[in-house]
User: Fold these one by one.
Assistant:
Number 1:
Amino acid sequence: MWTAPTIESFRQQRHKLMGSVAFVPTMGALHDGHVALMRAGAAIADHVVVSIFVNPTQFAPGEDFERYPRPLDRDLEICRSASVAGVFVPNVEQMYPRQQLTCEVNVPALASVLEGEFRPQFFGGVCRVVAKLLNIVQPDIACFGQKDYQQYKVIQAMIADLCMPVSIQMVPTVREADGLAMSSRNVYLTAAQRPRALGLHKALVAAAAMIQEQGETDPLAVEATMRTILAAHQLRVDYAVVRHAQTLQPVDCIEPALAGVVALIAAHCDQVRLIDNLLIPSSER
Ligand code: AMP
């Protein structure tokens, strides 16, 4: 497995890869969720390429950019075990040369709601870095996790609108045994906070049960139940909503005919901000 710290060295290695390439962009601190993306890539392409880059432009001042975990040696070992062909590990100067004029990339219709409301610069930073990475890596397929469902939808729309020659694959969320969605930020949770963090998954499971088993069609009733569960776990809620799975817009009624809804939550366990979601397809109702 090779590692490339510069765009030029990456391109030299990339050029030698014959056959199809699946790409898994990450910010490192890799866990089994990231490994699932690598495995999904390996199942559909000849080679898997990973990037590890903690992207400063998607963090707002005061967020956790500086303290975001960066266990590079361990990450490279995980990539090696997953039979990754090569890893792009640029520094900030490589990705954002100081004298360069910058470009804005965004999908306002999808990116202005939910995460975009609470982290206004997030999707602009994500779209720009993913567009740059896709242009550098030139993969056939890019793999993204359902864990960041809105991010997946935003990138899917960006790829379609900009006619980027890449297909995009969504990989289901990998969870701990008790249901907590794996996240690089889970290391911030103390032993006392860990059971409270489970409130997100419990609220999502309750929402799915209300819709699928009890036939609840009022999104406001489902959202009230989610908020009650989150409050019982002493979680401060940014949003806990049921949205149209394609547009991420509110729905008046969770109709059986609807293409499907997604329940999405962002909540703070003291200083740790967590997100999770569950797709509730209409075929299961
Ligand atoms: P990150 O390193 O957090 O930026 O995530 C890189 C990629 O891994 C994104 O596409 C995430 O959606 C995905 N990912 C993160 N956590 C999980 C998880 N628990 N299950 C599946 N995919 C995940």
Note: The pocket of adenosine monophosphate is lined by residues 26-27, 33-34, 36-37, 144-145, 147-148, 171, 173-174, 181-184 (CB under 6 Å).
Number 2:
Amino acid sequence: MATAVISGTPVQFVDAGEGSPALVLLHAFPLHSGMWDDQVAALSPHRRVVAPDLPGFGSTPLSPAGGTVSMSGFADLVAGLIDHLGIAPAVVAGLSMGGYVTFALLRDHPEMVAGVVLADTRAAADSPEVAERRTAQVAEVAAGGKAEVVEAMVGTLLSDETRARRPEVVERARALMSTASAEGIIAALEAMRGRPDAVEQLAAVDVPALVVVGEHDGPSPPAVAEAMAGALPDAHLEVIGGAGHLSNLEAPAAFNDALASFLNRF
Ligand code: MLT
């Protein structure tokens, strides 16, 4: 892992390969950059690939100490990293929470973005039900129930097929989620709950987009991805057969193929 201090935060990130535009991979909640290992291995022989740990996850500390975390704050940090590395504009791929950060990046730092991959994510803000669930999760984690919250997520993020037949993928997802600190989980839950709606933004996205979704994604189902791709001016939709919400972990070969074809456009 490399480190760069961005606005006082020591951001840890994977940096592999050469070639521009670089690909910046933004991880899901509550995972870290390690979820992209298969993508880094497959794509870095052809392209520079950068995958940061967002604050509070993996090896990047939650910051600023005592400050408020937001998707915009995460995007500011990613923009700072892109600038620091001199790789603007980059192709930015975000999965789920990483997609929420990508929307904030498109809104606040469009000059940093050459293209976007929106994987297993949604432009809409939280529904009242989801917001309520996050509030309950915050309380549960604060009361010491981090392991229970993570275990419930293992159940909802992976497809039935993955859970039934691929114990190694289940174990990897569980391990990636278990390293998150309680503070990081609480901060990100509150930040996701407070994120603005990005639906109106879609029509104004003026860079090429790839929308990827697992066929059995529960939290961000294919219908959501289809609507998002339809609202984007220049988007291709790729549905990954057999995968759930963590499509890059559940079907890395299909995910990598979709990413590689998209990168060929640049
Ligand atoms: C994720 O995978 O990042 C989460 O499911 C996002 C969310 O809870 O909205």
Note: Residues 217 and 244 are 4 Å apart (CA to CA).
